[in-house]
Amino acid sequence: MNVFEDLIEELRDENLLEDTIVDLRSPRTNVVEAEGRPSQTFTTDRIASENGSLQGSDPANSESEPAVASDDAERDFYRKRALDEVSSLQMVEHVLSGIEREYMKIVPGSYDDLRAKTALHKFLQVQGDSTTTEYAEAEFHLMRETEAWSSALSARDNKISVANLRRFCENSRPILSSQALLAVGRFYRNSAFSERTRAKFDFVMTRLFSREASGDKRKVLFGRAEMIGHVKTLYANWSSIALYSADDVPLKARVIVAGFEDRVAEAESSLTFDQLIQNDFFKRVHAFKEASGEIFFAPEVVAATIDCNTKIGNKFVDLIRLERERTNPESIEEKYGYEYDQIISDAAGKTLQLVDVLKNLPEVEDGEMTDSAGFRSTEVNPVSREARQDRTSLFTFELFAVNKWLLLATIVVVMVSTTLYFWSSQSSTETSSAESAKDVSLENSDLEEYMRTGRATSETFYAITLPVWDQMAEDKKREILQQALEFANKNGQKNVQLVNFRGRSVAFASQKKAEILNP
Predict the structure, then answer these.
(1) pLDDT tens per residue across span 377-422
(2) Which of 200, 285, 467, 490 has its CA 20 to 30 A from that of 17?
(3) What is the spatial distance between Cα 222 and Cα 57, in angstroms, rounded to a whole number?
(4) Residue 240 CB-density burial (10 A; 0-12 exposed, 13-18 middle, 19+ buried)
């Protein structure tokens, strides 16, 4: 049994994983069963216990291959590794298909994996040691087929946004297992580097090494040093090749880790959500991650990122809770809306939508307080209680001490004002020729990632762009603008008008022309 399987077995022993409940076998995969071993399976539960751990790794020796005692042991080791790789690709296939079907609303472009599984069967059937020609040919054929499968998955994944991956993994029912998350993490770690691949790997590893706590918060499962050891173990079992020079790692990794720690300190010292917004904190976190490049995959950086993501997300929830205590949910929603949801989610490695966070916050009753971790206490604040009672007594006294003639005059003024209001409204309805705009839902459309809300008249579709619009190149903006025009045409509108959150026009399109504006 290799180290990867040791980790999974210990997770299962700690009741962190249930037995496999969804079998990915199909009639054509029986070639794998001919070896006397069932095909790899996909569990739909993941880490659920606070006391569990990814034990079984030795950080000091995690990058070395497990010791091979004999030729038979060596052959078994490579056979199990081949099975791990094929089963991992099978899990990624199912995850991508689920995203395509549920969030992109397209027919999944499933890969015909028969050739890969046939190659695996032949590799498992080879007799003799790894120095024979037959063994080398079978291994080469298997590598070629798995690389073709991986390339096909990468091509499909390039069309999937980070937001859609997040939503699928977070909302999947039953919940994705840790095996599935490990498979997806392996896929992104071994894929060609890009900013989108880095961001997806960032999310998957954060979700794998943390669990849900109360009130939209998350809790990291391990300390920093322990996480580094587990990440090194996973890399060794994934056969991951470093994308950076080993000589550059210690210094650069320390600098990046220190940068993440500075950002955690900045977040935790902030007293209000406005303070973070005014300082462009979440944008700076995203830019810092992007600037780290390939060194982001260094185990030390991955561990620091997971810790940073979790603490930033938890601090965001705390600050929104404080905002709600000062005002009301309606005012907060009106003030911030959906403008910062995407950039906050990127910074926290978790989907955090302000409106949903507000709805999920627990109600705090009189005499109840919450600590920084979001847990309630029953301490009573005497000063606040007395002040509330004084305000209530004063309000009651003044209400019933009002002069009756003044009250009568007030009622008359209200009646007159109401009459004038209805009269003016009726007049406006009869004389105005302006059309009222109707709300247009962008949910499950390609525009959802770039635009916040949509409204439409009979001629024009209006939408407010998200901050990501300002960061895109002009060619990309024109592509999105064309998609918006096609969307509008399907709904009966001929023109598209895009504005940013400041109310300034940023783009316009019609059947005759399309124009990108610089507000």
Answers:
(1) 444 344 444 444 444 444 444 444 456 666 676 776 667 666 655 5
(2) 200
(3) 13
(4) middle
**What does each C-alpha distance from 429 to 240, 249, 423, 459 come to in angstroms?**
68, 69, 10, 20
Pairing outcome for strands 495-499 and 460-465: parallel
pLDDT digits (tens, 9 = 90+) for 93-149: 999 999 999 999 999 988 999 999 999 999 998 876 777 888 889 989 999 999 999
Cα pseudo-dihedral 255, 256, 262, 263, rounded to 10: 160
Omega of the bond prior to 329 within 30 degrees of 0, cis? no
Gap between the Cα atoms of 179 and 230, Å rounded: 14
| Residue 432 pLDDT greater than 50, yes or no | no
Q: Which DSSP letter does residue 399 get?
A: H
Q: Give the E-state strand segments of 418-494 in sequence order.
A: 438-440, 451-456, 460-465
Cβ density class 338-359: b for 16+ within 10 Å, e for less: bbbbbbbbbbbbbbbebeebbe
CA distance between the termini of the chain = 61
CA-to-CA distance for 256 and 292, rounded, in angstroms?
Answer: 7
In angstroms, the CA 241 to CA 353 distance is 36
